[in-house]
Specification:
globular; 3 helices; single chain; alpha+beta
Length: 107
């Protein structure tokens, strides 16, 4: 079902290993921009396709879980998309070989 939130409502938004499952990333990022306050934080933990081993792992996951529509970005692509939605990367850490933690702050 669809849930509506007021604009400029959230100080913190957390996305834990979910973004690659969603079919419409552009719509999601526009919604996050709309509902987050200026100066808010966006914490994302996600798999990225930054090297051959990670891309191979992602191909395997897509086959195992039957998700041909799943979309995985490189960290650089992802950061660029969020930057275009007024979020600056302020912290990053690889927490597992295939998983990264990124913290963004809205301008």
């Amino acid at each position: 079902s669809r849930v509506e939130f007021k604009e400029n409502l959230f100080d913190y938004i957390i996305c834990l290993n979910t973004l690659h499952h969603l079919p419409n990333h552009d719509k999601l990022f526009k919604k996050i921009k709309k509902i987050s306050k200026r100066g808010s934080y966006l914490l994302i933990i996600e798999n990225f396709a930054d090297n051959v081993l990670q891309r191979t792992w992602i191909r395997m996951l897509k086959k195992i879980f039957h998700e041909p529509f799943a979309r995985y970005y490189s960290k650089q692509e992802f950061t660029k998309i969020l930057s275009s939605n007024n979020f600056d990367l302020i912290f990053e850490k690889r927490i597992l070989y295939f998983v990264n933690l990124l913290l963004f702050k809205k301008q």
